[in-house]
Amino acid sequence: MKAERTPDRIEKRIELQAPVSRVWRALTDYREFGEWFRVKLESPFEAGEETRGQITWPGYEHLTWRAVIQEIEPEQYFAFTWHPYAVDPAIDYTKETPTLVEFRLEKTATGTLLTVTESGFSDLPDERRNEAFLRNDNGWAQQMKNIEQHVAQNAAV
């Protein structure tokens, strides 16, 4: 019996009722990102640099969030790599190939289309692949709601 293969990528889209500049700030200002993503980041995002901070999501406060910023193209594209669903402090996830998270913004007639894609799940160890994919698929669905709420509540910021 052949095991079902986990898909390699997650893609979520949402149209936000805010200009591209506002959504861009929510994505790339490390303090704003931390508010809706639920992580208290220590420093601004800088291409080529690791960013880290304490996760503030209930039940995960004991974990440190880490990502390496890959690319920042103002008001268009923001990307980082990370180790998905890295929730066991006893495991050294740095030995694994990270996944790539990409945010793309497009102006629409009423606001901004935000697309988030996470790819590279096929490179994860077999024993982690399925759960990491399922958890992050659900996680990105929630994070899209979080950024939508954040942008709506902080429209004038």
Question: Which helices and strands occur, and which strands form pairs?
Answer:
Layout: E1 9-16, H1 20-28, H2 30-37, E2 39-41, E3 50-55, E4 64-73, E5 77-82, E6 99-107, E7 112-119, H3 126-153
Antiparallel strand pairs: 1-7, 2-3, 3-4, 4-5, 5-6, 6-7
Helix pairs in contact: 1-2, 2-3
Structure report:
By secondary structure, the chain is an alpha+beta fold. It has a domain at 9-28 and 69-153: START domain (Alpha-D-Glucose-1,6-Bisphosphate, Chain A, domain 4, 2-Layer Sandwich), CATH 3.30.530. It is 29% helix and 32% strand. The protein has three helices and seven strands; from the N terminus they run E-H-H-E-E-E-E-E-E-H. It has helices spanning 20-28, 30-37, 126-153; strands at residues 9-16, 39-41, 50-55, 64-73, 77-82, 99-107, 112-119. The protein has a seven-stranded antiparallel β-sheet with strand order 1-7-6-5-4-3-2. A hairpin with an 8-residue loop joins strand 3 (50-55) and strand 4. Helix 1 (20-28) packs across helix 2 and helix 2 (30-37) packs across helix 3 (126-153). The protein starts with 8 loop residues before the first strand and ends with a helix. The mean pLDDT is 94.
